Amino acid sequence: MTEQTGEEADQEYAKLVDLAVRSLEAHERAVAGPYSPEAWAPWREAGHAFQEAVREYVAAGEGRNRFEVEMSAKAAAKARRAGS
Questions:
Q1: DSSP letters along 53-75, please?
Q2: I need a surface site. Which of 60, 61, 66, 83 has the fewest CB within 10 A?
Q3: This model's pTM is above 0.85
Q4: Whole-angstrom Cα distance, residue 59 to residue 3?
């Protein structure tokens, strides 16, 4: 696997934050009503997409800590949602 340039890494990180925002939004919709597997499926899918993107992002960069990347992206997503 090749090392990402700074700009590529920034773009990929922005995608992580976008996916985290989608996951937060899907969670809000899921808990807004009664539980059903169908109602919660979009949240599970959004969470899976986010986790897969985190794995790929960490694998593409030398020395990236998966936990720190995930927590940072989630914090950025919450901050973006709070600002909107």
A1: HHHHHHHTSTT--HHHHHHHHHH
A2: 83
A3: yes
A4: 9
Nearest to 58 by CA among 75, 76, 70, 74: 70
Q: Residue holding tokens 């992002």? A: 57
H-helix or E-strand containing 13?
helix 6-31
Residue where the block lists tokens 């901050």? 79
Q: Which of 82, 76, 61 is nearest to 17 (CA)?
A: 76
Residue in the structure block whose two tokens are 């169908």 = 38
Length of the chain: 84
**Cα separation of 76 and 70, whole Å?**
10
For 16-33, what is each residue's pLDDT tens digit? 999 999 999 999 999 999
